[in-house]
Amino acid sequence: MKIGLQIPRFGWPGSPGNLGEKLAEIAHTADEQGFSSIWVMDHYFQMERMINATYQDPMLEGYTALSYMAGFSRRARLGTMVTGVNYRWPGYLLKVVSSLDVLSGGRACLGIGAGWYEREALGLGMPFPPLKERFERLEETLQIVLKVWSGDNSAYNGKHYHLAEPVNSPQPLSKPHPPILIGGGGETKTLRLVAKYADACNLFPVSNEELAHKLDVLKRHCDAVGRNYDSIEKTVLARISAGVNGGLAVQEFIENCKAWALLGIQHVIMSDVPNVQDIRPLVEIGSQVIPAVAGL
Question: pTM of this prediction?
């Protein structure tokens, strides 16, 4: 089992003056400690869903932050968890991810979803079409990205997007292309798109029973489209709790990982690690969690 890190907050003590310094330190330490991936949210406002957060809290633009962290890491994959399809035109998005992949030495991942945060979209004057249309745009974006990354520069004419000459040079270093992760557990649309287009899914471990059910739904979608279920990496986004004496609840998290591994989860992405800016939690995870779950 692999362990990843998602960084969803940037309002640390001293922010924004120390944001660059702290983000560099977090990326470098996570990379050295053996985290397999580093993620940021693709939001412009902080999520109101976050505990003890408001929409006005600090939030960095996702791909700018990833490009910056690429210079302070060497091994970990870098991606957004996840890009809202309504925020960037497909031709621009594939160019951004391709550039990140090339500059990071082949470490980009395209995390993508239908988007949901209406307040930030309307607040910044971005389109926010109805959910049905956002899913249509998501599928067209996936088709465009895979088409262009395969080297096909012919025109694309869909319902929502029309690309006359989708040239992308340089192409990504990752082969056959940067992994595509689709976030969300919607059983009718999202998991169907995972089966059809993606290299990875990302789910929330609400309960082991619910997680097992979502994976079973994904398998049925794979069977329906003739996709090898085992070719899709199964990931979850989970939090580690604070422990005693300023540490983390390491053993509890390891036991959770063991249970998720039995269900088929291969990659656990740790979100909102308590006091991540202090760096010590990353070292604790690197020395205790990552070795303990590596063989799962």
Answer: 0.96
